[in-house]
Amino acid sequence: MTTKKLYGKDLKAYQDIDLEELLAKLTDAELEELHTELIDPDDSMVPPSNRCRYKTDKLPTGPFDRKKLLQFLEKKAREDKDWEEAKPYLKEIRGKVWKPKVEDKIQVNEDVRIETEWDDVLASATEAELVDLAAILGFYGMLNQVQYHQAFIEGKPQGETVSGFQGVAMYADFKPFEEEPPNTTDVEASLEQLKANDPKLKELNLNNIKKISLDTLCAFGEALGKNTHLEKLYMANTRATERVARTIAESLEKNKTLKSLNLESNYISGHGIIAILEAINISQTLTELRVANQRPQVLGVRNEMTIAKCLRDNSSLVRFGIFLEMRCPRVLVNEYLQRNYDNVRRERAGKELVLPPVEELPYYLKKKSEAGREEPEKKTEAAKTPDPVKKTPQPVKKTPEPPKKTLEPPKKTPEPAKKPPPPPESSSEEESSDEDESDSEEE
Fold first, then answer.
1. Three-class SS of residue 149?
2. pTM, whole model, 2 decimals?
3. Where are the alpha helices (H) located in 183-300, listed in sequence order?
4. Helix 270-283 and helix 301-312: axis angle, to 10°?
5. Residue 125 and residue 119: Cα distance in Å, rounded?
6. Fewest C-beta in 10 Å: which of 136, 218, 253, 301?
């Protein structure tokens, strides 16, 4: 068995060495050198003053002066020689030297122009003549709509499968359409009419008027709550925001005459659309709502399902313009709109209507129904101290009433029960009479 050795001696020889005795024999310089050699400069647990190679034993010469300290460090760095590097610096170029790629020259053979007798004819031809020529030659990129339709739809004979270009139509000029004139509605006068509840104001069109401020739009929404004559309100592309949608929703809870509302191409999010639908479900009078093409295009799965639930509780909406990304709410919305449209036909024919489910009221209708049932005094108390315990006595007071009604029928039931007993009495009398007769015969 081989024994391990260190510096030519067996390891067992070092077991009996006293380290304290060895350290006591070292001088201060040797101890300082040993201290610097044993410290790991990469150990973060060692203080920075011990890890630094530069050390000084001088006493402080005076107060701290940053400017003088920087000057001293710069002077010291210039005067001191650089430390010797483990590997001397040599200028070497490693890797490949980059050279730009030399692109191959493409040789272009210019076609020799040959003059023909048709050059003058084509040069003097009009645009209509060139388009007719393109139609004859089959250049589809130069055909107009009339020629394309004639070539591929009307020009093909029925019952035959013909491929290629068929039919030729004459050149037709484009039909320019006039641009839509700007909206000239007087905003301030319309607002005054709406606030005054003018019976002549049945339809209000504010489409494409982008100069209306948000405060003015909110004023239109607030005035809508007290108006009883307006039937159609168009506010598409007016830069309406969530604030305007909330204001309109609050007014729709009170308004029962508005039939059509258009808020397309605005900045309304899914929460604003849901608020409008909840307000519509309270009044149940609006028949057309359009809120498509909003700035936040993605409504979210939760908002889309909430919109479908709101339409489930609605019985008046027939037209609803909106883009839903998910398939499930899109199908549900179509079914509920079809149900409402069928109810219109059923009402016209005098048939029974298919009403929304009434098993449980939605949360936005529960608040309104509870507020309507409470007395004015209880409303003020509930507004001051909303305590849910105060609402519980209402069902407690009503619950004893049904048992009183149910207890009345049992009182009537014993009365007919007295009628059956007479037959048994008659039978007993007959039996007693028969017994008397038998006794008399025996005697």
1. helix
2. 0.47
3. 187-195, 214-224, 242-252, 270-283
4. 10
5. 10
6. 136
One-letter identity of residue 6: L
Tokens in use for 372? Answer: 């309507």
Lookup: tokens for 10: 């067996």
The torsion defined by the Cα of 44, 49, 50 and 54, in degrees rounded to 10, comes to 120
- Tokens representing 269 are 């999010």
Phi, psi of 176 (to 5 degrees): -75, 140
Q: What DSSP string describes 35-78?
A: HHHHS-TT-TTS-HHHH-S----PPP-SS--HHHHHHHHHHHHH
Structure-derived torsion over alpha carbons of residues 258, 264, 270, 275, reported in degrees to the nearest 10:
-10
Tens of pLDDT, residues 11-37: 777 777 888 888 888 898 888 888 778
CA angle 342, 343, 345 (to 5 degrees): 65
Angstrom distance (rounded) from CA 188 to CA 190: 5
Strands annotated E in 59-129: none
Per the CB < 8 A criterion, the answer to whether 107 and 131 are in contact is: no
pLDDT digits (tens, 9 = 90+) for 260-278: 999 999 999 999 999 999 9
Tokens at residue 150, please?
């004639």
Contact in structure between 291 and 263 (CB atoms under 8 Å):
yes
Task: Supply the DSSP string of 162-209, one letter for each residue.
Answer: --S-------------PPPPPP---HHHHHHHHHTT-TT--EEE-TT-
- Spatial distance between the Cα atoms of 235 and 219, rounded to a whole number of angstroms: 13
Report the alpha-carbon distance of residue 360 to residue 107 in Å, rounded. 82
Query: In Å, how far from its chain's centre is CA 193?
Result: 36
Q: Which amino acid is at 42?
A: D
Q: Which two tokens stand for residue 377?
A: 């005094």
How many degrees, rounded to 5, is the angle at CA 30 between CA 57 and CA 51?
55
- Residue 431 DSSP one-character state: H
Distance, in Å, from the CA atom of 337 to the CA atom of 310, rounded to the nearest integer, reads 12
